[in-house]
Amino acid sequence: MASTYKCARCKQKVEIDVNVRCPYCGHRILFKERGAAIKELKAR
Amino acid sequence: MEIEFASLDDSLARFTLSGASTAFANAIRRAMIGEVPTLAIEDVRIYDNTSALFDEMLAHRLGLIPIKTDLATYTTQDKCSCGGAGCPGCTSTYTLSVEGPKTVTSSDLIPQDPNAAPVYENIPIVKLTKGQKLVIEARAILNTGRTHAKWQPTLVCGYKNYPVITVSDACDACGNCVDECPRDILEVKGKQVVVADGKLPECSLCRLCERACLASGIGDEPAIKISAEKDRFIFVVESDGSLPAKEIMNRALTYIREQADELEKQLGELSGDDRK
């Protein structure tokens, strides 16, 4: 279920399990990646 | 009832309507705003959006873009033979695929039907910086302003009563009202104040001239009096470009006639009268 994140410093893909921390560079700012699903909206 | 045009082109119509009640003038206004169908984007499919705006905000902005509408080729979804599923007879599709750095404008919306393109090409949708991406598919459908303001064909659309300015013999041509009038429609001619040639329709009925006249110490009654013709109206109708102003008026009046016929028919059925 864990969604993929992207490290703000080394741009690697990161999976979060317990710690919010990049396992490659130790940076603690992660961006959540946009899912692959197509979003359908009403233009209102 | 009579309509006299002061000016008419695709984007703007100015006319006077005489011999009609306020209720009828308002009916025309409301029909032009809310009952004439136009195209507007309704369904948006977002494949990718890494821009600074949320998907919902983008969809909303797309919906508000005016689209050239040919009412001969498009019908509303509930009257379409496809039953509202979406076919070329009731929907127009657009694709948008842009990568930054760039300001995404309405010209980046590529229509499937070139006759249903956005009215203006330079409407900004969102600014993209380097690396940001936007991939969108949109569907426009025909509907009326009654449902949502994005389907209104009009921008400015309103009326006012035709002004009547009377200057009595008590006028001493002091010129106070001439200075006070915000629209400069009065002038001193000889020993009386008169309305400048052709400027009468510009009067906004603000009555500042009446007050200026009283303040000049003329007595209890002002020499200049502003009133309005109860059955004559000045209309201004501005189109957003989706339809010509003339067609907006035509469609609105046709709508009013259809509604009146329908009412007559229903009343006839109620009273057992067999008139069609």
Basic shape of chain A: elongated
Q: What is the tally of helical segments of chain B?
A: 5
Which class do the helix and strand fractions of chain A yield?
mainly beta
Ends distance of chain B: 25 Å
Helix content of chain A: under 10%
* Main CATH class of the largest domain in chain B: Alpha Beta
The total of beta strands of chain A comes to: 4
Tell the overall outline of chain B: flat
Which sequence of SSEs, written as H and E, runs from N to C of chain A? Answer: EEEE
Mean pLDDT of chain B: 93
Protein described:
The complex is a heterodimer of chains A (44) and B (276). Chain A is mostly beta strands and 44 residues long. Chain A has a domain at 1-25. In chain A, 0% of the residues lie in helices and 32% in strands. Chain A contains no helices and four strands. Chain A has strands at residues 4-7, 13-15, 30-32, 39-42. Chain A has a three-stranded antiparallel β-sheet with strand order 2-1-3, with no helix packed on it. The mean pLDDT of chain A is 86. Chain B has 276 residues and is an alpha+beta fold. Chain B has two domains: 2-34 and 155-237, Gyrase A, domain 2 (2-Layer Sandwich); 38-151, Beta Complex (RNA Polymerase Alpha Subunit, Chain A, domain 2). In chain B, the strands form four sheets. Chain B has a four-stranded antiparallel β-sheet. Chain B has a four-stranded antiparallel β-sheet with strand order 3-8-4-6, covered by helices on one side. Chain B has a two-stranded antiparallel ribbon with strand order 5-7. In chain B, strand 10 (186-189) and strand 11 form a beta hairpin. In chain B, helix 1 crosses helix 5 (245-271). Chain A: It is found in: Cytoplasm. Chain A: It holds the Pfam family Zn_ribbon_RPAB4. Chain A: Part of the RNA polymerase complex. Chain A: It is an enzyme of class 2 (transferase). Chain A: One of its GO terms (molecular function) is DNA binding.
